[in-house]
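CORE FACILITY INTAKE
Project code: CF-77B
Contact: R.S. (postdoc)
Sample description: multi-component assembly, two entities in total
Requested service: structural model of the whole complex
Turnaround: standard
Below are the sequence entries exactly as provided by the requester. Do not edit them.
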Amino acid sequence: MTASLELRNVEKRYGDFVAVAGLSLAVPAGVIFGLLGPNGAGKTTTLRMIMDILAPDSGEILLFGRRRQAGDLQRMGYLPEERGLYRKMTVIDQLLFLAEIHGLKRRQALPVIEGWLARVELADWGRKKVEELSKGMQQKVQLIGTVLHEPDILILDEPFAGLDPINQGLFKELLLEYRKQGKTILFSTHGMEQAEKLCDHIGLISHGRLVLSGDLREIKRQASGNSYRLVAPTTAGDLERMRALPEVEVAMPSDVRDPLEAVDPLDASVRLLLKPGASTSELLRQLLQFLEVREFRSEEPDLEDIFIKAVRDAA
Amino acid sequence: MRPEHAFIVGKREYLTRLKSKGFWIATALLPVFMAAMILGPALAASKTKSEQRLAIVDATGAGLGQQLAAALTERVPGTRGEGGEVRFEAQLVPPGPDPAALRSELDRRVRAKEFGAWVWLTPEGLRDNRFEYHAESLSNVVTQEALRSRISKVVSLWRLRAAGLDAAKIAELTRTVELSTVRISATGSRAEQGIGGFMLAFGLCFTLYMVILIYGQQVMQGVIEEKSSRVIEVIAAAVRPTELMAGKLVGICLVALTQLAIWVAAALVLTTPAILGALLTLPPGLTLPAVPGAVIAHLFVLFLLGFFLYSTLYAMIGASFNSVQEAQQFAGVAVVFIVPPLLLVMPILNDPDSPLAVSMSLFPFFTPLVMMLRIAAKMPSAWQIVAAYSLCLLTIAGMIWLCARVYRVGILMYGKKPTLQEIWRWVRYS
């Protein structure tokens, strides 16, 4: 599979602060790639460098398997984290302007825009000024503006932040449709759940460095076998004791996540990620000494657990 | 820099502004406002009537006090100065035996508002050409000037009579003279009234000032609007900051040129004799000053120079801040540069080739307004125009370079207000 986007040893500093430290990353064509990491990990800086809004201090960025060429940006769609529209322009004028700066002619763009407005049920709003639209409608216009020039690569910075549920659904539908057409999508998020549901590939970054990347199913398969779910009445102190056990890599309470398991407040659910080669019988023996274990079973690991482990391993 | 992208951005700026009601309202109302600004103070001053009740103590024994009182109440045609008309109400106070007591008595009566001021005429004063004037406030320079000229007149009349001349003869000999003004220019001489030429020069200069300031501020607001609405990064992904900046400056510049062209065209049409005659009858003797085509051409050139000097400054300020309020205090910096020529309109127009006028017109940030005044008053020598315009162009090149660097970094900076050192760092980094 050829990489439609590749970063080679890219570095960016702001004065003394290193935002991106020697990041190498390959995004294969036709996948949804999730760039994950906590706030301040360097995600936005990375995406801005890909969009040529910032220039890297060193390293190189390859697009479509070669160095950047004039006109490449017009084959890309970008939705920045900080986004907005000209409030005083009408919806159609606004979208025509966005189409034009992406290299479309007005005559080509108009039917595309009208098609999109009809699809998102804004056909009657084209002549209205953006400021007259509700927030949800403005989000739809923003999404249309990002994709109306039919980019081959979509770069999205925290695309789901602040979206209402209807637009989140619309966006997911769009991303899956794009993947079906063989286009490449790179989006950043700090929400692991979104990534887990949508991504084919992921890259985890922390402090400007890549700590893990690859096919999501592959990553999960490698990590599974070490992941367990424990149901038992647990206190914070118990959690600490679990983490101190030699077999345990990560111990995370997970009852908030699944409402069905929180029916009995006494039965907290804890996700455990074991160290390689750890013995489950030995672990269980130790747990039984201070916990009243109701359930202990193997399960597929959470992306969040994998991420925490990867960051810890990298440190 | 891809010109077609700058063109798309410029087109957006131009069309959205031209479609707005604000542009057309401003086009219609600004001339009215400017006329009020230029003619208002002059009109108000000429209509202002100040009054002063004055006590006169005459210790000369020569009847000067009575003559002064008469001269002060008499209304002499043609004595209206720039400050308008001053009316006096004079009251003679006998000198009395104790001058010190009388002085404190007069001071008391001034404080009691019985009258506004007192003058003391003495033989020594007559000899030294200096009399005392006492009042609670001395800021009434116009009144003082009127009083001084009347006293001078009374005293010289008195001296002429004392020299044995006949009163009727004196009046005959001391009539004042008026000037018939004729303006010499390359296209020939023509009778004009000085005040018309003055108004034209000031009007052109003031128009330039308004347009540069208003459109400079529009550039600043446009940049801030793109930052505060967060649309900037969406645009920045497809258009390079330099293209965005160039498009914005040129687009807004064309809006301003459109407005200027509408005004100039309207002024030219309205002042053709046929239309003007139908609209109003000019007071006899008043002629409109001729406006040579060269002056209009220079108006547009000077506008372009002024616009790019100041709009780049405004764009930098806009890119550095997140809100108009934050930027406003720095926007004052631009005003500091643009206002001094307006304060010196009088001395510059009075002698357009004076060292002050020439040196100010060569300082790039003053060039647009000062050159406008000088060109409207009297065409400066060619080398001065070339030198001033070249210096301006060099400065503009420097400003564009600086602005592009601040702009490139500033438009992506949200949150806290940058310090001057930080802005300087942006210039060095990029």
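Facility notes:
- The longest strand of chain A covers residues 3-14.
- The mean pLDDT of chain A is 85.
Invoice: internal transfer
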